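Checklist before submission:
- one chain only
- standard amino acids only
- sequence pasted in full

Submission:
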Amino acid sequence: MITTKPGGSAMPAQVVEQVADRFKALAEPSRLHLLQTLRSGKASVGELVERTGLSQANVSKHLRVLLAAGFVSRRRNGLFVEYQLADRDVLRLCEIMCGRLERELEVQRRSRGPAARRTG
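Returned file contents:
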């Protein structure tokens, strides 16, 4: 069992599996790119294709996964379907991981010493 917070109650196995499924949805660079693109607001599939450089089929496939995971929502607007972030919490997850990676890279740079920093 995983605890929800220090001293907190344990998460049931079903919840642990649901959390793992959400992380699996984020484990694809194209999906992360789509989420970052949607940071600026709503967009249709065509607009996402243009902004990301991904194919229409790929954008549609990845949006289905993100929709099923609850990270994006969609709404019909005339002939188009627009997608947007369901909420901004998913971006907070990405920011936490980016911050951690930056700290790890800084530790690696420091451990190489001054000579490595000058050359690389």
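Reviewer check: DSSP finds six helices and five strands in the chain.
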